[in-house]
Structure formats: C-alpha cells, structure tokens
Write a structure and sequence with these properties.
- The chain has about 350 residues and is an alpha/beta fold.
- About 30% of the residues lie in helices and about 20% in strands.
- It has nine helices and 18 strands.
- Strands 3-2-1-4-5-10-15 form a seven-stranded parallel β-sheet, with helices on both faces.
- Strand 1, helix 1 and strand 2 form a beta-alpha-beta unit.
- Helix 1 packs across helix 6 and helix 5 runs parallel beside helix 7.
- It is globular.
Length: about 350
C-alpha cells in the first residue's frame, strides 16, 4: 500500500514514516520543513498545506492519508490565535479540498489530541461524575489547583475519560484540534470514507522538539536539563497525565491505516498508566544522570546536582488532570502501548545511534 503522511518531517510524523517503511509500504511525505530524520525509503515533497499548489500530484496513487501536520502546544498568548487557526484549520481544509478534487476515497487518519476533552471526566464526592467548570485565576493564584464541582464548588477528584466524553476545549490549540476532527468527520460523511481521529495523550521520546515554548512538557524538561538547568514544574506537580512513547503512537497510526476493517471515529492513544508531571520531572532528572562517572559530570552540564523545582506558576489554559481509557483502541485496533515509562524516559538520556535510514 502507499500512504501520504502530512507533517512527515516532524516529531511524530517522522516516526510514522519509519514505521510504515519498515512494514514495506510506500510513503510520500508532504511537509513545509526539511526532514530532520529522512528515511531513504520515502519520497519527500516540500510544500505548505495551506497553498493549493503544494497538493499538485500529492495524492496520486495513494491508498490512505495520515494527517500529522499541525501547530502544536498551548501557545504563548492570544497573539498566536491566527497562526493556530491558519496552520491547523485552514491546512486541514485545504487537505480536504485536495481530496475532494482528487475524488480520493481512501482512509484518513487524523492526529488529534487529548486536549479536546478539556478537564475531562471529574468526580464530586457528593454529586458523582460531573463536567467541571474552567478553573479560575483567583483559585490558581491562591494555590487551589483542583477544579471545582459546578454544583457545590467542592474540589473534584480526577476521573478517566473515554471517547464518549464531550469535547470541552480550554485553549486555542484545543479548539483547533476539535475543529479538525469536525472538518474531517464532515468529509467522511460526505464521501462514505473512514476517518479515524487518534487522540494522542502526552507523547514523548526521541526527536522531540527542543528550545520552543510550543513543545510538550517532556521536551521543555529535556531542554532545561541539556542546558544544565533544573526542570521547572508548574502548579504543585500533581497534574495527572498519561505519557505515551512516540514509537507506540506511530504504531497506532500504522494500525489505523492498515487494519482489515476501516475504523471511523475517535480513539484514545494512551499507555493506560497514570503519572504526574512531577513524576516525569523526577524521572528525567534521574535518567539524565544515569551512568555518569567521576570526572565526567561536566559533560552532563552538572545535571547530577539538579532537582526539579516546583514553582507554583500556572497557565489559565492548562487542565489539571487528564488521563484516558485505552480500551477502545485495544479492542478495535489491537493497540496496546509497549514501551514502559521507565524504559522510555531512560532512553531519552542515551544518544540514538545512526542507522541506514537516519544518516
């Protein structure tokens, strides 16, 4: 089979390309960036998805599309709103327009995100499962980080989200990801083609972007450690998340593209294990100093003396807890995460040896 991977030069996209090539599939990449990890078995085209000229011939001979291209992360402030909408919403709309013109009816797999859930499912001791209201700046400034029950205002306990949890985006990025899902679902209904929205949870692993405020928390912690700085943990570090390794995410994409019966709808891509942001910071500090021998501490920028710093800082668009049930992806795709958290984080501190696919 042959697949088009948009954003195939990026963090997740490049891993999807590698996984598809490894299984013997033909791969065409469309990305406006140069490939940082080019795979010799793939065809690369440079182009901006928002420009219609970029789509000329891009879908020729393609059996499925894996749409990874997106502007990611929470962003800096509302000054980013136009860029997010342009890259994510307009870019996706141009993809759908190109598929319409090409009369494409193959599978579409969309890289979506856990952020579409907002705070997700929460539980009140008095009122049971509830949809929490957004956290207020007053509470956050006072160090009250747990969301409150909309009925009694008591602090809520975290629950586990499944794919039927209503969307409740709390920031611009989240809103664009949910809109991407809606746009792609509309195309699927119009054409009768299958659209699978893979809702990634916190993805980490090799090739994470660094040195950018738009990266995920693992990237931000890794950049700090590489510079000899302690990771700075927002709030109290108790935010619950599901950290899933990028190679597992890539495998979920391959399954969605190739499973015998096409899958329509949303699927959580998660490990099923609950960790806190503080757990991640602690594990990354430990991984960065593992194997350091006397006299080599300087090579590690003094990381052996560092400890995570819990800052109490907060961002209004952040959610407190968000962990998911991976049951549906396991039952429908046969997907289960294979990389253990300890192994995945430890590998972040080891250099990746070159291979024939990654010169």
């Amino acid at each position: 089979m042959r697949f088009l991977v948009t954003g195939g030069s990026g963090f997740v996209g490049s891993q999807v390309v590698d996984a598809l090539v490894a299984e013997g599939h033909g791969v065409r990449v469309l990305d406006r960036a140069r490939p940082g990890f080019p795979n010799e078995g793939a065809e690369y085209r440079r182009g901006d998805l928002r420009h219609r000229a970029a789509w000329d011939g891009a879908l020729a001979g393609v059996d499925g599309v894996c749409h990874q291209a997106a502007r990611v992360g929470l962003g800096v402030d509302m000054g980013d709103v136009a860029d997010y909408v342009s890259d994510n919403d307009v870019g996706t709309a141009e993809l759908l327009h190109a598929m319409h013109r090409a009369r494409f009816r193959g599978r579409l797999v969309l890289a979506s995100s856990m952020v579409v859930y907002g705070e997700g499912q929460s539980v009140c001791a008095t009122h049971g499962p509830v949809q929490s209201t957004p956290r207020s700046a007053v509470d956050l400034e006072a160090g009250m980080f747990e969301p409150r029950c909309p009925t009694c205002t008591d602090p809520l306990m975290p629950g586990q989200v499944d794919e039927d949890t209503p969307g409740d985006p709390r920031n611009v990025y989240a809103a664009t990801k949910l809109h991407q899902e809606h746009l792609c679902a509309a195309w699927g209904r119009e054409t009768g083609a299958s659209v699978t929205a893979l809702r990634y949870h916190n993805v980490y692993g090799p090739r994470m972007p660094a040195g950018t405020p738009y990266a995920g928390v693992a990237s931000i912690f890794g950049a700090a450690l590489a510079a000899g700085r302690a990771p700075e943990v927002f709030e109290d570090g108790g935010q619950r998340r599901d950290f899933v390794h990028v190679t597992d995410v890539a495998r979920a994409n391959v399954l969605a593209l190739t499973v015998r019966s096409p899958v329509s709808g949303a699927l959580n891509v998660a490990s099923g294990e609950v960790r806190t942001v503080g757990d991640l910071a602690t594990a990354m500090v430990a991984a960065s100093t593992a194997g350091v021998v006397p006299g080599e501490a300087g090579r590690h920028n003094g990381a052996g003396r560092l400890r995570p710093v819990v800052t109490g800082r907060w961002r209004l668009g952040d959610v407190r807890h968000l962990v998911a049930s991976p049951r549906r992806a396991r039952e429908i795709l046969g997907f289960s995460a294979a990389v253990a958290f300890a192994d995945g984080v430890a590998a972040l501190a080891r250099p990746v040896p070159p291979s024939k696919n990654h010169p």
